[in-house]
Amino acid sequence: MSERRILIVDDNPDNLELLSVLMERNNWESDTAESGVAALAMMEKNVYDVVITDLMMPAMNGLELLVKTKERFPGVEVIIVTAYGSIPTAIEAIKKGAYSYLLRPFEPDDVALAIRKIYELLEIRSQNMMLREELTKALKYDKIVGASQIMRRVYELVDNVANTNSTVLIQGESGVGKELIARALHNKSPRAAGPFIKVSCAALPEPLLESELFGHEKGAFTGAVAARKGRFELADKGTLFLDEIGEITQATQVKLLRVIQEREFERIGGNKTISTDVRIITATNKNLPDEVAKGNFREDLFYRLNVIAIDVPPLRERRQDIPTLAYHFLERYATETGRSIRAFTDEALAMMSNYPWPGNVRELQNVVERAVALTRDEVIDEEDLPENVRGPAAFSDLPDPEPGDTGVIPLRMAKGAWEKSYIERTLRKFGGNITHAADALELARKNLQEKIKAYDIDVSRFVKQ
Q: How much is the pTM?
């Protein structure tokens, strides 16, 4: 525990020496201060985990030092040292955030026990913080899969804007994963502990959509037998995701604009103005500027929603992600069904890599789920794929995602993507142990290391902590 440090505060030099000797006997690093003012100055320059302070001191007593410490350094735990007659004040100190108090004369073991308990608390707190960080990493992009350059730019944009409260408009075709981007923005934001509320604007007619968004009072309309909170209220201190925002009517657009501008609204049939603290994220597969030009969407609302725009590319523009996505879904559905399906044939993977995927990631997911259900082998081949994926459409001309791209992934690239994915899955299974992975793959350890280097695989990601 030598990395932790204790600050002892007392205006009596004998008391400082007594506690310093006790700290030294337990191999705990400590410093001393003869006043509360001096202690605060030392805390500004050094990091302390525990402050042991006398209650009765001139200029600034221990209670005042406690309050200022908790204000400036909330992670520091404070022990108050007091005489028997000051117990009521010591109890007040506990209420103000002190960890505990010690009565003079105290036994050395009492001090040591209190500090050990604090260190145990700090260790648990540190572990919890690490777990939250790991959870944040796990939730970072929720279930988004893809390492193509175009998707890395999307991830970078998500990282840059997640910590803001700016309204975000996510644009992309149906099935590209717009909701996953919205969830990633929420999970990486300071609002992550708050609710993530989704509303599909195309699924409800206007009267029901308004009730869904703003809530209603009892008797507001036929069937309103009780008051009901809307999604804006339910999403307070969190994120409200309005999917298919391009489908809302002009009347709803006006009400939505007011909420975005003023952060307040009334329930249907109600007079009480309700304030809300939500971050609004919207998504659409429509071209909103075109809808504005046609008079279908309010220009002022569009500019309010389009503070930050994130364009999610269709799958045909990031075909290098197809093998990774395919194996991601294969692993999921093989696990769910309890089947030992381990791979795709090269031909099947090449067909999937060249198919234009008009339904995007959602269509690919459905195709893999179907293949897992139908195949009788441990490897999915081209016969397990739907006819449209393995037919002529699979090899139709595709738009160039990047200059010089012919629209077709070479077979060697598809094979390479499969091999990299399979090596990564094997390394994950063996916790990053290259020797065990090489044995399982029936490769020489040196050959596996060469492949790891060639595919730029970060083995540390799979090492179990």
A: 0.56
Nearest to 81 by CA among 182, 7, 186, 163: 7
Strand partners, 282: 169, 242
* Residue 168: partners with Cβ closer than 8 Å, 6 or more residues away: 161, 182, 185, 280, 281, 282, 307, 308, 309, 310
Cis bond before residue 105 (omega within 30° of 0): yes
Torsion of CA 230, 236, 241, 244, to 10 degrees: 30
> Which of 358, 363, 350, 359 shows the shortest CA–CA distance to 320?
350
Q: 3-state class of 363 per DSSP? A: helix
- Which residues share a beta bridge with 50? 6, 77
pLDDT under 70 in the chain at which residues? 1-3, 84-86, 126-147, 391-417, 465
Burial of 137 (0-12, 13-18, 19+ CB in 10 A): exposed
Going through 5-154 in order, the beta strands assigned E by DSSP cover 5-9, 29-33, 50-54, 77-83, 100-104
Quick one: DSSP state of residue 194? S
* Whether the Cβ atoms of residue 315 and residue 380 lie closer than 8 Å to each other: no
Look up tokens 């030598």; give the residue. 2
Q: Which two tokens stand for residue 429?
A: 């299974």
Nearest to 185 by CA among 279, 314, 260, 259: 279
Residues contacting residue 373 through CB under 8 Å, at least 6 positions apart: 333, 337
52 forms beta bridges with 8, 79
- pLDDT (0 to 100) of residue 399: 40
Read off the DSSP letter of residue 454.
H
